[in-house]
Amino acid sequence: MDTIFLHGLKAETIIGIFDWERHTKQTLIIDLDMGTNIKKAALSDRIDDTLDYKSISKRIVNFVEDSSFQLVETLTEQIAAILLEEFHINWVRVKVNKKGAVSLASDVGVIIERSRPSA
User: Fold this and answer.
1) Number of separate domains in the chain
2) I need a labelling partner for 43 at 20 to 30 A (CA). Which of 1, 24, 73, 82 fits?
3) For the whole model, what pTM was predicted?
C-alpha cells in the first residue's frame, strides 16, 4: 500500500465543551495520511488515476469549518468517514491538533486510523 499525505491543513471552527468554546472559533491543524495504490497514476501520469489532494483538502476544510462538534474525537471520526466513503481510500490516519487547548502542553489532539471494510 502506498501513502499520499496532506499535512498542516488549517481550519477555523467551533469546537469544545466550554461555554467560551461554543462562541469562539478555534484553529485546528489536520494531518492526513491516506493509503491507496498509486501504481496506475505513476504509470499514466494522470491526475484522474490518483487522489486529488486539492479536492480532498477543500472538502475536509469546508466540512470542518461548517461543523460545530463538542469533541475532537467526533470531528476526527467524521473526517475519516468522509475520506473512506467519498474518496474511496483504503486506509486513513487522521490527526487533529487543537493547539494550545491545554495550557501546559503545546499540542493536544487525536490520531485515529481507519480502514475500508473488506469486501
Assistant:
1) 1
2) 82
3) 0.93
